[in-house]
Amino acid sequence: LSDFTPQATFDIKKCDVHRLEAGPPVKAELTREQGLQYYRTMQMVRRMELKADQLYKQKIIRGFCHLYDGQEACAAGIEAAINPSDHLITAYRAHGYTYTRGVSVREILAELTGRIGGVAKGKGGSMHMYAPHFYGGNGIVGAQVPLGAGIALACQYQGNNQICVALYGDGAANQGQLFESFNMAALWKLPCVFICENNKYGMGTSVERASASTDYYKRGDFIPGLRVDGMDVLCVREAARFAADHCRAGKGPIIMELQTYRYHGHSMSDPGVSYRTREEIQEVRSKSDPISLLKERLLSNNMASVEELKEIDIQIRKEVEEAAQFATSDPEPPLEELCNHIFSNNPPLEVRGTNPWSKLKSIS
Amino acid sequence: MAAAARLFIRGAHSTLAISGVGTGKQSSLFKLSAGCSSRLKAQRHVAHFTFQPDPPTTEYGATQKMNLFQSITSALDNTLASDPTAVIFGEDVAFGGVFRCTVGLRDKYGKDRVFNTPLCEQGIVGFGIGAATAGATAIAEIQFADYIFPAFDQIVNEAAKYRYRSGNLFDCGNLTIRAPWGCVGHGSLYHSQSPEAYFVHCPGIKVVIPRSPLQAKGLLLSCIADNNPCLFFEPKILYRAAVEQVPVDSYTIPLSQAEVLQEGSDLTLVAWGTQIHVLKEVANMAQEKLGVSCEVIDLRTILPWDTETVCKVTAAAPAVTSATVV
Questions:
Q1: Was domain A7-333 assigned CATH 3.40.50.970?
Q2: Which of A212, A348, A363, B77 has the greatest number of beta carbons closer than 10 A?
Q3: Which GO terms of the cellular component aspect does the record hold (chain A) (predicted)?
Q4: What is the pTM assigned to this prediction?
């Protein structure tokens, strides 16, 4: 054990900056513990998403399912840079963030299968998972960004030194409500880190075909911005730390563009190869896979062994398998739960069911 | 996802003995539905209805077998061919659209007439209002009716009031907004909504919902021709499931005219869209099991709706049920 290098410094890609004198550091320090932790986190998200793919194809998960594999470095890097008491909100490609924000794989998969053991009690599904200081999980594109600005306002108002990270995609970057949020955040110097996860495609539309400017880190105009290599967990961490410090220093909002990639299509009903080539996907997998990049770093700097990482992989597969077992065997929520929590009400409310003689009760 | 019907018994003229119905357990109709529900639950059906095509017609010329999305494509094809100012735009319409309603049109008519917009519903409708006001026949697509709300202000405050506020100097009557609508079984919160109720209290726009491919093409062509901004909601669950013989050439079905699909003397059932097919089944069941004779009306245009037909009919069959897709 003591043969391993306890800490190493790595060169990371320099970030492009907008309206900033300097960007995040170009060197990142990584301890062995951190390396293993980031590896574990990213591998867990990867295996969880692949398991979700499998369960979806078996029709055990139904409805909508947007998978995050390929983008693990973003979720892992951001979480490494912020505190659990900070706040985070994202769009519908949210399973990775649900995990990094503290929800177990068990509860995530059970939510995907719509069971009572799911994090939202089986009533939210893939796009609506929540946790303390994690506000989902949002279906309407771009709608979560003004919410994020509001959460940041609450942090500022309460003076608790917390920040809000509000994520959106390259497709959402053209929604009007984002610019309304940018203006409010800048005007009132809200501690909000706006992060654009640019995975190059909004559903099937490439960024060049959707945006007059694909420099998403500059789209906040008067808000400073960073363009970050989103496939390198260390790069993401350093940039997120830089951004968080910026906000906590009271300098107002900041935008981060994470250049990343998703291996799956937009959702499970999109094969993902009609608007991009298999060669492109394969190239990213072989040259820029976030987990492989970290693994190479750990191994070539003697910070971990092949056997050790293999052991971690085995443990992770086991945990995911057990979670899938739970998710398939846990019961669905009972019909009595269907209409609860529509309002916060007292006394109970009667809700019309599918025919006039079946009335359901709504209580909260 | 069966009918959500509320029974209003009005007239003293009703000769119906329906005391058993309301109490639930006694009525055979209820037993039938309960049986349906449990059967549905076991089989995981999306929705309990069978699409009932209209009998083929030669009224409008030669016909071809088409499903709902194909009938929409046909209407748009006819429009682009006959109206050089017509343009179609929305998210992903260029490759054919997420429901294949615009397949082949870009290749046939050019990329300046069928083009994609970025992801911005408010922008799409605002842009459409402008284009229509300047003289283009603007056909905007909102990818799902659930996403129409960022454009609500543009529709209600701009499109609906343009003619009135300019004293008839300007209007955006050339605008038609299309959107897939209604429950589909797996759509959940944001791919299942039926938002027409939010719009039908707004004078200045028209809201139309077809029940079938034949109706859809004729009604859509009427909306496009109509000099008022129109919202055309297409029941997404019928896109593939509904197949009919549909005329190949252009034809119109009048707006603000309800259609009586079946005559009856005891009860009137009014609906639109997918629910028509449920109510037709209900009418048959009511006749068979209860000896109740039902009139079935498809409203077709929800705003402005055909008050005359509905009121005239319900004068004869006093009880009215209105039902809509949940």
A1: yes
A2: B77
A3: mitochondrial matrix
A4: 0.87
